[in-house]
Amino acid sequence: MIAGMESSSTAAEPRLWRGRTQDERQAERRERLRTAAMRIVEESGVDAIAVRSVCREARLTERYFYESYASIDDLVGELYDTVVDEVYSSIRQADEADDDPVARGEASIRVLARILLADRAKSRIFVMELSSPGLLGAHLQRKLAMKRDLMGGIVDRLSDGRLDEVDREINVRSLMASQTQIFLAWAAGEIPADEDRLVRHLHRILRAVVAVSSAPAT
User: Fold this and answer.
1) 34 with 122, same domain?
2) In sequence order, which residues have a C-beta less than 8 Å from that of residue 67 and are 6 or more positions away?
3) Angle between the 72-95 and 22-44 helix axes, to the nearest 10 degrees?
4) Are 76 and 82 in contact (CB under 8 A)?
5) CATH code for the domain of 165
6) HSE-CB of 82 using CA atoms within 13 angstroms
7) What is the tally of structural domains in the chain?
8) CATH number for the domain that contains residue 40
């Protein structure tokens, strides 16, 4: 082997520290910051997230925070997108698991109820736009588009295409707004209902709203 080529190959290899590359160490620190932020949300809420509190929880200096994020908003936005993607992925899987549109609608509601009840941090992140609308910007618009698409599909199946454009848009937006508020109140213990009662009631609201039409009689 040519000596010059061997030297070049050796120089191109990533430098290791305790058996890990620089990229691997940075990825590990980023994950520690994310985990620390979620613990803070679970214990104290979204408003408690700050650079200092996250670094203290992660046991990292602020230098390492800015190695991964330009600002605390970037971290919060990343957490928000991750939780939203996970929640809607689970809902879509439940929604596609049955051919019966009525059963699919109920399954979607149940999945969301279980996620929000089981994980306080995810619940608080998922509904945080209610308290921090200016913080999320494009992240919120992305979530609303996903939510509108999912709810629109449920409305279309349950209505069997009987709604006109105005009926559909009003019904979809009504369900989007009301269900978020109800889930938030339930997760906070303000609605004294178990999971089955909540899901049954919300499913009946869903079916009732889907049937509403203001279209002129033909």
Assistant:
1) no
2) 26, 29
3) 80
4) no
5) 1.10.357.10
6) 14
7) 2
8) 1.10.10.60
The CA-based angle 23-24-25, given to 5 degrees, is 90
Last residue of a domain, one of 9, 39, 69: 69
**Token match 């009732």: residue?**
208
Using a 10 angstrom Cβ sphere, with 0-12 exposed, 13-18 middle and 19 or more buried, the burial of residue 88 is buried
| Contact assessment for residue 107 and residue 98, using Cβ atoms and an 8 Å cutoff | yes
Model pTM above 0.85: no
Domain around 110? 71-213
Residue 93 tokens read as 């899987």
Q: Which residue has the higher pLDDT, 9 or 65?
A: 65
The label of the residue with tokens 């700050």 reads 50
Q: Are 61 and 149 in a shared domain?
A: no
Query: Over 90: is that where the pLDDT of 209 sits?
Result: yes
> What's 97's DSSP letter?
S
Q: Are both 38 and 85 inside the same structural domain?
A: no
Nearest Cα to Cα of residue 30 among 2, 68, 1, 61: 68
Three-state SS at 16: strand
